[in-house]
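Z., the sequence and structure:
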Amino acid sequence: MIVPANNVALEYDMYRMAPENMSFHSTRMRPARNCEPDNPEKFRNELKQAYGLLKRSSDVIVYGRTYGTHKNAGIIREVFGSDVIIPEEAVIEYLQESEIKAMWLGTPYIKERTDEEKAYFAGKGFNVTGSCGLNKVYALDIADTELDEIRAMIDKNIDSVKNSEIIYISCTAMTTSKILDKLSMIYRKQVISENSAILWKISRITGNPVKILGLQYI
């Protein structure tokens, strides 16, 4: 996994959710200003260095950043090839495979970033019945998000949540392994996060069966 240096949630979630026969090996990348690279050539070189560290030890490569990733997916795939896991795209693949059209989007972000995420998924053909963010900026604050905060955000938007088929909690920097099943049972819907979608995609690539938290309720 290629993980931004200030992300303290992704590795934690992977080891909590994954089976014992799956291991994770990480290298860190410098966090980018505004959460996305602003120098394409520098970004490309950093990715190549990271790939050199991971390619011999790993069956699957995960690019572990969320916000703004879709803007740079071309460079990421240029370096790693088509099999690299990009979290947003793993979510989309799960929704498409499950024939889910209507989703509710929750993020830890400020409104501008939440609106950008909403527009991205709407542009992919999904009906985003509603969205809301927690107005957080810093990675450590995002990682410390509690179940009660997520519930309050969802309850505030419960009418648009009811119109959805699935609740999607965005951001790899948000720890979700402890809350996915709880949210699914409370709201009687499937709940997917970017970190659980990564694990779902790893399972698909490797053929290693994994129970994905939050996706059991139908």
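DSSP finds ten helices and six strands in the chain. The longest helix spans residues 40-54.

Let me know what you think.
H.
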